[in-house]
Automatic annotation (TrEMBL):
<dbReference type="InterPro" id="IPR007159">
    <property type="entry name" value="SpoVT-AbrB_dom"/>
</dbReference>
<protein>
    <submittedName>
        <fullName>AbrB family transcriptional regulator</fullName>
    </submittedName>
</protein>
<dbReference type="InterPro" id="IPR027360">
    <property type="entry name" value="AbrB-like"/>
</dbReference>
<keyword id="KW-0238">DNA-binding</keyword>
<feature type="domain" description="SpoVT-AbrB">
    <location>
        <begin position="79"/>
        <end position="124"/>
    </location>
</feature>
<dbReference type="Pfam" id="PF14250">
    <property type="entry name" value="AbrB-like"/>
</dbReference>
Amino acid sequence: MNKKKNPEPLTGQELVEKVKALGNLSKEEKARACGYYTLTKNGIERVNMMKFLNALIDAEGIELDGTTGSNGRGGRSASYRISVQSNGNLLIGSAYTKKMGLEPGDEFEISLGRKHIHLKQVGESTEELEED
């Protein structure tokens, strides 16, 4: 079986120049041509538009967040939106855990609704219920 390796995507000025050179192609075609796609186990190409657009924004030097930390480093701020990853996971980033003052090892109970997930910290109010 001839296995193709996922491409190394273009970044920085190289990305900007390639996008400009591709002219009238669609966004998806430009993303694919710049290496922003992955190959599934079955050899199907999946274009990663978010990575492509974020790399293009970074390459152009556009500051969307408008805030930087006190040490001058930018980092991500909480957008209050997440997407299901290609492996089916939902990742809640450190911007949220820091904002909530959570520490490694903190545990949560998960309750699933029709279209929502509710997290309840273990030991938070269950101790109060047990005392009653």
